[in-house]
């Protein structure tokens, strides 16, 4: 298990997990702070029968992949698939609940790189715990930028 | 362009189209930018 992180990702949704997988492929050590309430978990997963007459809708919170994978359900069951996939990079990626990440802030490698992929109301909570520690580690302005979402894409 | 050095954003926080493909695309661009900005390692 890695003890120092090169990047902290706040939010374990589609964007956060994608970035974690990419950074793991770049052999970077990543910590993902995940509150577990990604908006993508509320996307219904549908399975359509062969003749198209019956449609069952469920929510993509389970871990068992859909047996009938249509073109759409592959995308809609994204989180249950992406989380275990992320776990295959466990040497580089750690997905932790937000509360468990506060103590990890001091182990972030200089200079602390962060990627925010969570909604403002979600990351205000970790911002109070994590950002305070990170503020003294070369990132002034982070604390005020988080609640106001004054962050822009890397494009 | 970043407004805060060392801070990147992707997904719902970005004021762009809220689609899965857009979020993943931003995440991939951001992850690559982060990787390039970090010192090289040879693990």
Secondary structure topology:
The complex is a heterodimer of chains A (155) and B (43).
Chain A: E1 5-10, H1 14-25, E2 30-34, E3 44-48, E4 55-59, H2 71-76, H3 78-87, E5 93-97, H4 98-101, E6 108-116, H5 120-135, H6 142-148
Parallel strand pairs in A: 1-2, 1-6, 2-5
Antiparallel strand pairs in A: 3-4
Helix pairs in contact in A: 1-3, 5-6
Chain B: E1 7-9, H1 20-37
Mean pLDDT of chain B: 80
Quaternary assembly: heterodimer
The largest chain-to-chain contact, stated as pair and per-chain residue counts, equals:
A-B, 42 and 32 residues
Largest sheet of chain A: 4 strands, parallel
DSSP summary: helix tally of chain B = 1
The helix/strand series of chain A, from N terminus to C terminus, equals EHEEEHHEHEHH
Specify the structural class of chain B. mainly alpha
Mind telling me the C-alpha Rg of chain A? 17 Å
Helix content of chain A: 25-40%
Q: How would the global form of chain B be characterised?
A: flat
